[in-house]
Amino acid sequence: MFAALLITFRETLEAALVIGILITFLTKTHQEVFKKYVWIGAGLGVIGAVVTAVLLRMFLGTFEGRTEQIFEGILMFVTAGFLTWMILWVHRQKGLVKNLQNQVQYHIDQKYTVGLVILPLTAVLREGVETVFYLQAVATLAGNNNQLIGAAIGMVIAVGLGYAIFRYSLKIDLIKLLKVTGAFLLLFAAGLVMHGVHEFQEAGLLPIFSFDPLINISHILSNSSLLGSFLRTLFGYTASPTLLELLSYAGFIYMIYLLEKQTDKLLFRKFATGRK
After folding, report:
1. Among candidates 239, 237, 247, 252, which has minimal Cα distance to 209?
2. Which secondary-structure segment (H or E) carries 18?
3. Domain spans of the chain?
4. 52-83: pLDDT as tens digits
């Protein structure tokens, strides 16, 4: 449940921040007449995410056996890719507010109201679709679909926090908050990669290092225990990993470290040269 809460909190907060920035800008510039387009876009984004969730569930229900293992492995890798993109995206959002405000004003000046719909639509749809994939991956890792309570709590907290930020000018370091939650999600993504490798090994697509587990500590902390189940859902824990699973877990974290380092260098160069 905690993984679902953390994921939906993070994704909903990002969408809420975009909507809040757009609405606040229109209010401060006395252009409230355009607010309806923002809400229309947000509503369409939510509908798109719900449709994606339904289609994904229907699609998953058609698989069984080896085909199901392959698709679950693909789902894990795709979801880990989404998480990787999201974590790196945060590092590049120094001018997000100004950029959104400029886009809104440009669409208003050009009388392009469709653009005012597309901005919130893409933001909400992106976060919604990512959430759908994350929750499905969490349900697969946990071995059940009972993640709705955690997801609902995460959404409520994120919406409440977003409202407080823009309604009551709540001071909070959002970049730091996103980075902290991103650190947890990085470990979650690593667990997804490891589980994807496991599914591919089970399906016979990754025969290397797929023999007996490298270690087996089920007698100490099994996957089915309360703590083991929690660690498995959040961090991809397994009591009997193969060598390739461990290598994939460590390799993914190291890859993210290198990518973040490279991103920081690029941002520093852009700042030092005055490029935007």
Report:
1. 247
2. helix 2-28
3. 2-273
4. 989 988 887 777 778 888 888 898 999 888 88
